[in-house]
Amino acid sequence: MSRRCExxxxxxxxxxxxxxSNHKTKRKFRPNLVQVxxxxxxxxxxVRLRVSAHALRxxxxxGGLDAFLTKASELDLSQGARELKRKIAKSGDAPAAxxxxx
Length: 102
Description:
By secondary structure, this protein is of the alpha+beta class. Helix content is 37%, strand content 27%. The protein is elongated, with a radius of gyration of 17 Å. It starts with 12 loop residues before the first strand and ends with a helix.
């Protein structure tokens, strides 16, 4: 399992830890990933995803998982999230969720 957010694509970055004497050593910047189950109203079920805390706040801000996925770019999503986005679009309830968010 990779350290990558399934909704935003946020992944591990590398950089330097800089001491007071300006000595640089390699370090990793890991995203704050949490395992959550989000409810899809269009599909009528919950979905377990591994997302960053920032993405979780974005999902809540946009009005739920369905509204987030309808607006999200296919390039950022994981394979499982892409399939979920297609299922939500097929169900036909995605425009209703988008209108409720406005």
